[in-house]
Design goal:
Bound molecules: 3,4-dihydroxyphenylalanine
Mean pLDDT: 91
Low-confidence stretches: none
Helix content: 40-55%
Structural class: alpha+beta
Strand content: 15-25%
Radius of gyration: 44 Å
Strand order of the largest sheet: 1-4-5-9-8-7-6
Number of strands: 9
Number of helices: 11
Largest sheet: 7 strands, mixed
Shape: rod-shaped
């Protein structure tokens, strides 16, 4: 028998269509709950229709009651299905995110071993009261050679050894010119270290490069003696290489110091016993040093009768090779992350 469309059945059908559309679109449990309250909640549509049922003519009552019951049941089922669907959704999303996969590591960089060693040297000398000074890499011949008491026929001035620009300036061959620049710019006392890059026309090999790094030191005061120099170098060696590190001074010549020494650190590989690295001598050459030549003091206007001092210069690459037991200096310049990543 054809259902006779009375007002109640029309409302039920409209409610069913509305519920179907809204349940399909529902994205949150709250939307579904809102629909439940509106349609089948205590003050919702269906209880209201139920109260209207008494107005339906007797002949339509059966039909209307059946539509009411099945309508309410379909809405109830639709709501339950929607609740299940929304409860499962976060789980489905989580299933795509596999928490057992290893994470992608962010590869952070770090300082180059040369920079690490420079920073360590500077930190050690700062604790002894030195401050950091700086000078240009493109330098005048005056600062790099003349003011440092270097005679005109000194071999290091040769264009075979030093890079000259057309205008007569050079790439500094040592950090020693920073001594001159500092003394020109201030009155004594002076207590500085000057780390930086220097350039020489060397053919690169395991222990030489066309550019490398030095750290220069200069200490000027009244009554400075060779024993002050020795204790500063000895303290540095111990700070850098541990309590058993020893130093050794050997007579040498530099134009800007008198007397001059070359100094060695006890070999950290064999601790002075003798091994291939130190060629069985037990010591490794680190750098030069000495008492500042009175001519250098005069060149910057300091009175050598009042002021005296010492200076030293060390090769940073040498220190890095010893510190990290690197066999060939060229590794430091090849930018190979397999090497650099080890520091
Ligand atoms: N400048 C020298 C060099 O490059 C090293 C050096 C020796 C520096 C003696 C000094 C010094 O300050 O006193 O070989």
């Amino acid at each position: 028998m054809e259902a006779k469309m009375n007002a109640i059945i029309e409302k039920i059908n409209a409610a069913l269509a509305d519920a179907e559309r809204r349940l399909a679109a529902a994205a949150t449990p709250a939307e579904v709950e809102q629909l439940r309250i509106e349609l089948i909640g205590r003050n919702g549509l269906f209880p209201a229709l139920s109260r209207e049922m008494g107005t339906v003519p007797a002949a339509e009552r059966r039909e209307t009651g059946a539509a009411f019951n099945s309508g309410r049941a379909r809405i109830q089922e639709g709501i339950e299905a929607a609740v299940r669907r929304l409860a499962a959704a976060p789980a489905a999303a989580a299933a795509k995110l596999d928490l057992t996969l290893p994470g992608r590591r962010w590869r952070t960089g770090h300082k180059h071993p040369i920079s690490i060693v420079v920073d360590e040297c500077v930190a050690i000398f700062r604790r002894m009261g030195f401050i950091v000074a700086d000078g240009p890499e493109i330098e005048s011949v005056y600062h790099n050679f003349d003011a440092l008491n270097t005679p005109l026929d000194h071999p290091s001035r040769d264009p075979q050894d030093t890079f000259y620009f057309a205008d007569g300036r050079i790439l500094r061959s040592q950090t020693s010119p920073v001594q001159i620049r500092v003394m020109e710019s201030q009155e004594p006392p002076v207590r500085i270290v000057a780390p930086g890059r220097v350039y020489r026309r060397d053919t690169p090999d395991a222990t030489h490069g066309m550019n490398f790094h030095q750290i220069e030191g200069l200490y000027i005061d009244r009554d400075v003696s060779m024993s002050d120099l020795k204790s500063v170098l000895q303290s540095f060696a111990v700070e850098m290489f541990g309590p058993r590190a020893k130093i050794r001074l050997r007579p040498h010549f530099f134009p800007f110091t008198e007397p001059s020494v070359e100094y060695d650190f006890s070999c950290i590989m064999c601790e002075g016993k003798g091994c291939p690295v130190c060629k069985n001598s037990g010591y490794i050459e680190i750098a030069g040093a000495g008492m500042v030549d009175p001519n250098v003091l005069r060149n910057v206007g300091y009175d050598p009768e009042v002021w005296s001092g010492f200076a030293f210069g060390m090769g940073i690459e040498r220190l890095a090779m010893l510190r990290y037991r690197i066999g060939d200096l060229r590794y430091l310049y090849e930018n190979d992350v397999r090497f650099l990543g080890q520091f």
